[in-house]
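> tool_call: predict_assembly(chains=two)
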Amino acid sequence: MKEQPAMVENATEDATSVVRVRNLYKSFGDRKVLSGVNLDLKERENLVILGKSGTGKSVLIKCMAGLLKPDSGEINVLGYDVPSLSLKELNTLRLQIGFSFQGSALYDSMSVRENLEFPLKRNLGIYERSKLNKLVMTSLEDVGLESAINMNPAELSGGMKKRVGIARTLILNPKIMLYDEPTAGLDPETATEINELILSVREKYHTASIIITHDLSCARQVSDRIVALFDGINKLEGTFEELKQQNAQELQSFFNY
Amino acid sequence: MSFKNFLTRVAHVYRFNMRFFKNAFAPPFEVKEILRQCFLVGNKSLFLIAFTSFLAGIVFTKQSRPSLASFGAESWLPSMVSQAVVRSLGPLITGLICAGKLGSNIGAELASMKVTEQIDAMEVSGTRPFSYLVVSRVVATTLMLPILVIFADIVALLGSFVMTNAINNTGFVLYFNEVAAVVSLMDISSSLIKSAFFGFSIGIVSCYAGYNSDKGTTGVGKSANTAVVVSMIFIFVVDLMGLQILNLFRR
């Protein structure tokens, strides 16, 4: 039985918020990347963070997953104050967070099967072959890639890699999914399939998701709500249609594309 | 590099080493991965070490013979070569070959994992990448180097025997009787301890270079290069320190 990290008192004001970020600042040397970001993610919500390259979108979700330590501010994920957690506590929390990387980040020395078995063996201590097979197949079926089970990452296309990357996170039944540029580098048809997959993951796994993107069609297809990040701060917020109607100057380059 | 950056780097290296010891001696132990890495370390270097040690044995014998012959001490050749091989040549050849072969391999592999976010992916899935990637490799190189040195010593002495036999027609039993007469337990144990430190240096330096690689493909090349160069420098430094310590015992 895994030890659970201590809950932070008064962690979330809103009971339905699974992620709460307040006044988040992060710099690399003299370069300010995040300059006071605030956002909330509700249960089973798909929140898109939209913004140009270099506005700190990826840094934001890396702070949420504890990969980067913020300079100041509050990050509360599932009731836990992320910056103050010990490594052991953080690892326990991370079991409830799925992170889909921009480049898929599949372990290229392992086959697809081994990629999916890796977190099961190391986190949950599952070594029974029949159980591993069942979990791996279920996860691959959910992303429509059961035929790729014995392939190596080098043999997969970009879209297939994204799917396997998502399957590897789903295998641990996460409560929150963080997608970093899920459609980057994909053709429109494959991008649409990945967007549909993001929606189906929510339906099947009841996850709340944060989707980092600069792809407007992705934002339109998957979002319940959009937060537009510019110069390291969230300037605009609303549904896709609301933002479109606002005709804000910062978003013109996106909507006129 | 400014002085401040230098101090920051020293602190970073110190923290990396402390993290290694903390993870190496705390459960869960990566037994399976350590055994896999031991096999890879041995398997990757065995042929190269055999080839270079055999040649070194031949060359060293051929080059030493005229000097000894000028003093009429040609019969001392097996004694001299065996002491040189066991005390210094074997560990040094093995260390340098492993620094090149394993250092570049570990440095480039971990760096490319870092660049393609595979280490981050392990981190966010809570799979403790440091133990899996770093501890297993450092322990494997530390354990395997002494074994490879024993192998290198034997092959180098065989090379030396082949040369001596070709010149003087010395028999196998006579040659190795002379070797056994001069090589002491102290020589063998100090050589093995020294090579374990060589292995640790190669492992920790290469893992540090790879695990803390800069982003981009240049980062991978730089890490592989740093791993090899710094490992080689460490081998010579450890060799010198080992000699100084050993001299204290010999006195």
